[in-house]
Amino acid sequence: MKVLCPGSFDPITVGHLDIIRRAHALFGEVVVGIGNNSLKKYLFTFDERVALVEGATEGLDGVTVEAMDGLLVDFCQERGIGAVVKGIRFGADFDFELQQAHMNHDMGALDTILLPAARDHVTLSSTIIRQVHALGGDVSAYVPANVQRALAEKRNAG
Predict the structure, then answer these.
(1) Is the distance from CB of 84 to CB of 6 less than 8 angstroms?
(2) Which end of the chain is more exposed for a tag (fewer CB within 10 A), N or C?
(3) CA distance 55 to 18
(4) DSSP β-bridge partners for residue 2
């Protein structure tokens, strides 16, 4: 079964990669969909985020990366994707994802699978990574090597 792991991935973290790998182990084929949320201010451009996710997932057979635009249910229907896999950390994540899951099911008969974050990644978020990085902290334990290099380049350019 082909599933979608959607997100904005600004930047992709080791927690995201854990969910992607687990989805792959469960379902075989994973499309990582990179989206844009007009309400968010991004550190990395859309193209940079796509490239970083491609680099982080390189070598994972059965995992592809695609840019997403428009409704998630339309994206999935056009590609024969049967379900969405999302990672959840806390109750607030569950509440938000449940609302989205109901809407996606109503609009496109699309099921959602919620995977709990691994214990080591439960407090990890892209927002925290961006904040710690902006304050000069070392986030190398929380992001893939290609993301660490890109963060260092951003710091040196800024």
Answers:
(1) yes
(2) C
(3) 15
(4) 29
d(CA 71, CA 60): 26
CA atoms within 13 A on the CB side of 38: 2
Q: Does the pTM of the predicted model rise above 0.90?
A: yes
Catalytic residues: 16, 40, 89, 126
Please report the domains of the chain, with CATH numbers, ordered by start residue.
2-157 (3.40.50.620)
- Enter the tokens of residue 2: 């082909």
For the stretch 108-141, pLDDT in tens is 999 999 999 999 999 999 999 999 999 999 999 9
Which amino acid does the sequence have at 92? A
Beta bridge partners of 66: 33
* Spatial CB neighbours of 93, under 8 Å, sequence gap ≥ 6: 87
pLDDT digits (tens, 9 = 90+) for 135-148: 999 999 999 999 99
